[in-house]
Amino acid sequence: xxxxxxxxxxxxxxxxxxxxxxxxxxxxxxxxxxxxxxxxxxxxxxxxxxxxxxxxxxxxxxxxxxxxxxxxxxxxxxxxxxxxxxxxxxxxxxxxxxxxxxxxxxxxxxxxxxxxxxxxxxxxxxxxxxxxxxxxxxxxxxxxxxxxxxxxxxxxxxxxxxxxxxxxxxxxxxxxxxxxxxxxxxxxxxxxxxxxxxxxxxxxxxxxxxxxxxxxxxxxxxxxxxxxxxxxxxxxxxxxxxxxxxxxx
Length: 249
Known about the structure:
Elements: H1 3-15, E1 20-27, E2 33-40, H2 42-48, H3 50-55, E3 60-65, H4 66-71, H5 74-78, H6 82-90, E4 95-101, E5 106-115, H7 121-136, E6 156-162, E7 166-173, H8 176-184, H9 188-192, E8 197-203, E9 208-211, E10 217-218, E11 224-230, H10 231-236, E12 243-247
Parallel strand pairs: 1-8
Antiparallel strand pairs: 1-2, 2-5, 3-4, 4-5, 6-7, 7-12, 8-11, 9-12, 10-11
């Protein structure tokens, strides 16, 4: 397959051990908006020091669209099983911005897309699961990729709703035993992710009246807030990030 694609998957995997994950949602007055996932691996870059500089001599600052990337790999993708082809298709609406600079120790990946209504976010998280499955298979014998847990499977669901006044994020574990098997299978990867965090950064067109999560930190204009969790705390209990946001009239 495309060499850039293979390198990209490998780099994503190596950042997971010390990465800060952010789920950013920007909602416009008409209910449309933008969703962005950010992976900040700058801490890993700093820890690696000279070793990272030797393997990554030149800075990378690149933006690409998955649909355009997959178009260059059409022949290879057509040979994949239909299920795998459908997983890749889910990623087509997304674009990726990659920044890696050994001189400034910056390593950041932004995966983003637009949406017409908040309920479309359910489909986007299925794409995140596809992305996790895809990168997890980039290296033989690689430990389970935590991103493959996004989007839910038969053991979880994740829903978003917004009516112009109230925004609700609802994650449910529908099969606790099956979900426990998934989290237990992270093994060593789970230990490596112990220092990573997961943030919700939500932005609304009107000031926020209330947020059900008491740890929410508001912007000065109260149109945005941030909630932060330990990444593994979130993985083992996704319902902890359930919340209700009520906007002012």
